[in-house]
Give the backbone structure.
Amino acid sequence: MARFILFVLLFVLLYAILYYLLKDTVVRRKKLGRESEPEELVQDPYCQTYIPKRTAVRKRVKGRYHYFCNKKCLRNFLEEKKS
Ligand SMILES: [Zn+2]
């Protein structure tokens, strides 16, 4: 029984952390869009296109952020990494 409670607690904690991280990301993104460097360009690692950071699809892979022009490029990039 104690083990079950521990498991539930761990799950709740994990959920809370995830929620906090997601919220933090959204807030930071909003700030970036409003204030500094709205025209900063980032390169899509899959199709090598430059896109504005604001509109790019962001994905964190192994602790590094990658920016993509659309979700298709993101998916292709991840598929390529896997194989
Ligand atoms: Zn692309």
Notes: The pocket of zinc ion is lined by residues 44, 46-47, 49, 68-69, 73 (CB under 6 Å). Residues 38-83 form one domain. The chain has two domains: 1-36, 38-83. The chain is about 55% helix and 20% strand.
